[in-house]
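@channel sequence for tomorrow's demo:
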Amino acid sequence: MKKKPSAIFSILINILNNLNISEEYSINEISEKSGLHWKTTKEYLDLLLHLFRFSPKIKYNGENNKIQILNHSNHFEDLSLSQKILVNLYENRSFDDNSALKIKGYILNNDIDLYLEELLAKEHIYEVPDSKKYYITKAGKINVLEIYSEITKEIFNIQIPEEIQEKSVLDENKIIKKLIKQNNDILIQTKLLNAQNRELTKKLNYLYQILGSPVGKPT
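structure tokens (generated this afternoon):
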């Protein structure tokens, strides 16, 4: 019986948290300690490494169903200041004068003015006069999409464990089956309505024949 992905993650996390810091361990050792197959161990460790690299550290509050960002991922921190400015404007939907943003309030850096001037010169951002607010231009948006494209390639340059793939397929199949059932229900309802319409037409024809004015013929 295959274990659920959540169970595998739980097993690995418990094993890893009980290993000695700074020591190196082989996949075989982790596999033996966890009781998981070598391939499964390798695949899920790869996933964990990707999560640690690309995901920010977050805190979840179950009382109000809100999350708090504690710090950004190392991958985001590796972006240049120019890239961070563009991504920040893009994600805040600062696309025109009305949605322009004061960058200095979001990104703290002593050299930020130099990077803003560079982006202005490249026409990647535009400054709203007398406001110290900026918004991203079309050229800047293209730059951000290129950044995201590279990140996406790195994120998905990994083989997803079969258990997760199978779960995704099963979820998709459930949705398809649900849609097919809904479609069948609609077809049945349509057939019933058509049958009722035919019956109603027969009755109307009968009445019109009595009255001397059949359906489809002018009175």
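heads up for whoever presents: The chain has three domains: 5-71, 79-155, 177-219.
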